[in-house]
Design a protein that fits this description.
The chain is mainly alpha-helical and about 120 residues long. It has two domains: about 1-90, no CATH class; about 90-125, no CATH class. It is about 35% helix and about 10% strand. The chain has four helices and four strands; from the N terminus they run βαββαβαα. The protein has helices at about 25-35, 65-70, 95-105, 115-125; strands at about 20, 50-55, 60-65, 80. The strands form two sheets. Strands 1-2 form a two-stranded antiparallel sheet. The protein has a two-stranded antiparallel sheet with strand order 3-4. α3 (about 95-105) crosses α4 (about 115-125).
């Protein structure tokens, strides 16, 4: 079974064309990552296999040397490399999620919770 992004309403895998990143081992950086994830998943705790996808990081969080090397014809193992101090900050707003859920989707039987994620993306643009 492939690893999936643990962010709320995101289930990206490598097959979706994103990079997956394990949570850092350094305690201070780990607590920052966990705090950001808990903006949308209140009581969540990381496991050794927890990963976040590249969609939850802003562009300035990545080292672009691998992309440059690839554009010059060099073989590159990892196209997206996180900077050592990178912190995920791109998550759907919890407030917007609750509004969409309560007003639009809660009354619908058999709705897919991932629809909320896509609706939030649509309204956030």
């Amino acid at each position: 079974m492939p690893s999936r992004c643990i962010a709320a309403f995101c289930s990206n895998t490598r097959e979706d064309g994103v990079s997956l990143f394990r949570f850092p081992k350094e305690p201070e950086l780990l607590s920052k990552w966990v705090r950001e994830v808990r903006r949308t998943r209140e009581l969540w705790k990381p496991s050794p296999t927890s990963v976040l996808c590249s969609e939850h990081f802003e562009l300035h969080c990545f080292d672009f040397v691998p992309v440059l090397k690839e554009s010059l014809g060099y073989s590159v193992q990892h196209k997206r490399v996180l900077l050592p101090t990178a912190v995920p900050t791109v998550f759907p707003s919890g407030r917007l999620y609750k509004m969409v859920f309560i007003r639009l989707l809660a009354p619908i039987k058999n709705f897919n919770k991932y629809y909320i994620y896509y609706l939030i993306k649509l309204f956030s643009v």
